[in-house]
Amino acid sequence: MDRDTAKKQLEAIIGQDLRQLAEKYEVTVFKDGKKNKGWAGHVIERHLGIPINSSQAPNFGSWELKTVSLKRLQNGQLTIKETMAITMIDLYNVVRTPFSESHLLAKMRKILIAARIWESQREESSLLYSVTEFDLDNPQTYQQVERDYNLVRDTIINEGFEALTGRMGVYIQPRTKGAGHGSISRAFYARTPFLKCIIFKDRFS
Length: 205
Known about the structure:
It is built from 8 helices and 9 strands. It is an alpha+beta fold. The protein has a single domain, classed as DNA mismatch repair MutH/Restriction endonuclease, type II (ECO RV Endonuclease, Chain A), CATH 3.40.600. The longest helix is centred in the C-terminal third of the chain and has 21 residues. It is globular and about 50 Å long. 27% of the residues are buried.
């Protein structure tokens, strides 16, 4: 299944309650009081007729599916609930590769984001809000992501991999990713302002 086909299939269930679809597709949301954190993504995979992938970012060959959560502010407006991991930072490749040829850019150009509305920890209801291609068609957005990438690249070259910090970057940040607080692995994450530009593009156009 290609990304365009998957997008059309998911657009057909925008506005539907993923919690109800979880029951339909027999996806476990809670077991022994513990929440299955990836349940919403599993529901979407089942809807597409694809076996549930154990990885956090299912890979369908030419594209990848990611699920992000939205939350409501006190005024009722929706906003991004949390950042989104894009890809691991490979020190060797980042140092030797300009942004235009980077794995980060290639990865971003094949992501499909399913945004769902998070209501509470109880997960009694969660509507599918939108399905969006993660592209960089806005020149200003592209340039900012490129600057963020170059900041990471220059920092690694001049100060070392250990100097990377989550405080860096406007749209893309390097953050620790992996088991335990002592992890030294880093990944590129999309900050919430960047996700706002992608998911709520009508609001910012």
